[in-house]
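We emphasize that the prediction below concerns an isolated chain of 136 residues; any contacts that depend on oligomerization or on bound cofactors are therefore not represented. The input was used exactly as deposited, without trimming of termini.
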Amino acid sequence: METASNGDATPLGAQPVPKFIVDPDTVSEIEQQGCREFFLGKANKTPERYMRIRNHMLAEWEALKPEYLTKIRARAGLKNCGDVNAIGRVHTFLEAAHIINAGATQTRRRPGPRSNGVRRVSYSASESSTDDERLG
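Result of the prediction step, given as a token string:
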């Protein structure tokens, strides 16, 4: 991989991702735009609740680095912080902004439909075939 002349690991021609420093006691304008639902004056989605979710995810990511922080793991310590989808959207924003999971290693793959090793077999009157053979 070719890199910029300043020794940066960013490939030539690629836009570098700016480092975003999060102050645990404040919410930046970027965060307010990225997670708007917490800044619309709703009783159950407040800036304080956003900071609690964000700070929890930051602490989890710091403890887990360089492993990937999943939404499920991030949610585990967030009781009474909002619905699962809102918490997931905060995770998605933090990840897209490279605040969490930047350079993370994915330690395990999400299970696919046949990850348990069981093969489904279907039979017809004229022949028998597995799903793999018909799809292949």
